[in-house]
Amino acid sequence: MYWDAKAFHRSYMEMEKQFKVFVYKEGEPPVFHDGPCKSIYSMEGNFIYQMDVNTKFRTNDPEKAHVFYLPFSVAKMVKFVYLRDSRDFGPIRRTVIDYVNVVSEKYPYWNRSLGVDHFMLACHDWGPEASFSNPYLGKNSIRALCNANTSEKFNPVKDVSIPEMNLQTGKLTGLIGGPSASRRPILAFFAGGVHGPIRPILLEHWEGKDDEIKVHKYLPKGINYYEMMRSSKYCLCPSGYEVASPRIVEALYNGCVPVLISKSYVPPFSDVLRWKSFSVVVSVEDIPRLKEILMKISSRQYIRMQRRVLQVRRHFEFHSPPKRFDVFHMILHSIWLRRLNVRVSDGNDVMPN
């Protein structure tokens, strides 16, 4: 399930020993140093909080920092800065521009590297839009995004794909579990809103069409969403308006092999995790062949994938305080890897290693 397990372990342990992050102190909540912790955008708020309180990776001495974190929440900007239904991104853009200007005027680090050793994190769909407010932020900086869409200029070489997680209570209580591979009678399952270009195609071909593939626009009354996942071998994870879906993490939590149906999506932590070893990737064009594709997977191969799901899900678990190898550490490790790709010289030049 890893491209190179030994290399990952060595790199991870080195990160724990060395990696230091300077969190800019400027900015007041709710837009800065704050974020949602109990919603589909919960990764934003939880990461901001952990970086503000974490003493292991955070340094108060910017001269000792490997990277510099811009602690703004795009989700909170949408709530407190954006005029609802206006489609005017101007206030969000100006907020980002002003913040970068503040830290670049007060400190030498942004101008020294033109943002290469800086990073932002956003789980809102408009994270990419916010990043392009400043051309260097979008082009040079490390962008940790749930909306990891290569057709919208997500660059896997410098950017980080992070999981979209719907932590409704802010905790994992009741979210992780499920029976073994042999006790899952349903072949595949999906239930969710019909938005974006892919889900209508899925519903057109499979809603109410097959007893082994349970596809619903809305779950019937009395049917529990998580119980359906725990009764299914495969959980369908089609993109909605944007490429990311919380169903991917929900599938992993419930021991269900995720079926990724998307375009231009880079799954989280792909530089470390070999997704095809524990998930199924189906193109939009192959949605009519969905059952055929899944039925061709042998029982032995499915059991192997399902066991890997149970092994890999620790990398997607959220803990407060964080635990080794959990999602917080995996995000930092991805940022660490990308920071190793550049060298900021004393002569203010940014050079690839």
UniProtKB/TrEMBL annotation:
This protein's GO CC annotations: Golgi membrane
Keyword annotations from UniProtKB, A to Z: Glycosyltransferase, Golgi apparatus, Signal-anchor, Transferase, Transmembrane
Stretches assigned to the Exostosin GT47 domain: 16-297
MF GO annotations: glycosyltransferase activity
Keyword Transmembrane (UniProt): yes
Compartments reported by the entry: Golgi apparatus membrane
Domain of life per record: Eukaryota
Principal subcellular localization: Golgi
Membrane topology reported for the UniProt record: Single-pass type II membrane protein
Family: Belongs to the glycosyltransferase 47 family.
Name of the featured protein: Exostosin GT47 domain-containing protein
Organism encoding this protein: Gossypium aridum
